[in-house]
Amino acid sequence: MRAVAILLLGLSLAPGAALGARPTGADPVARGRSVAIEACASCHAVERGGVSPVARAPGFATTEMQHVAGLEGRVAGLTRAGHYGMPPVQLGPGQIEDLVAYIESLSDPDADRRKR
């Protein structure tokens, strides 16, 4: 029984495991940053100016991520199916919206200053 419990715990922490529910009480950019840190930061640079831990994983503030037409649909597809070695990550529609809001906020260098 203990082995089953450990196995279930390990599966729940696997890269393809579903993330927690969408947090409430914060703006979409702040919620998206939380999703990015929890679900994406092990491979992608999720902060402006960061370096991705995995060389093939584009940083969220890069031109590659910022100039994707239909970013929300692209993120939904990539997280659901994975891509070029990226494991699937189960995100709900609200989490995807928040993550896209965060990614898009990184293209605006004045966004951080306005939040203060």
E-strand count:
0
Radius of gyration: 15 Å
Instruction: Indicate the mean pLDDT.
Output: 75
Number of continuous helical runs:
6
Give the overall silhouette. globular
Counting structural domains, the number is: 1
Separation of the first and last Cα atoms = 51 Å
Helix content: 40-55%
CATH superfamily: Cytochrome c-like domain
Supply the helix-strand structural class.
mainly alpha
List keywords for this structure.
116 residues; mainly alpha; Cytochrome Bc1 Complex, Chain D, domain 2; disordered N terminus; disordered C terminus
Describe this structure in words.
The chain has one domain (2-115): Cytochrome Bc1 Complex, Chain D, domain 2 (Orthogonal Bundle), CATH 1.10.760.10. It is 48% helix and 0% strand. Helix 2 crosses helix 5 (93-105) and helix 4 packs across helix 5 (93-105). It has helices spanning 2-12, 28-39, 63-66, 71-81, 93-105, 111-115. The N and C termini lie far apart (51 Å). The radius of gyration is 15 Å and the shape is globular. The longest helix is centred in the last third of the chain and has 13 residues, at 93-105. It is mainly alpha-helical.
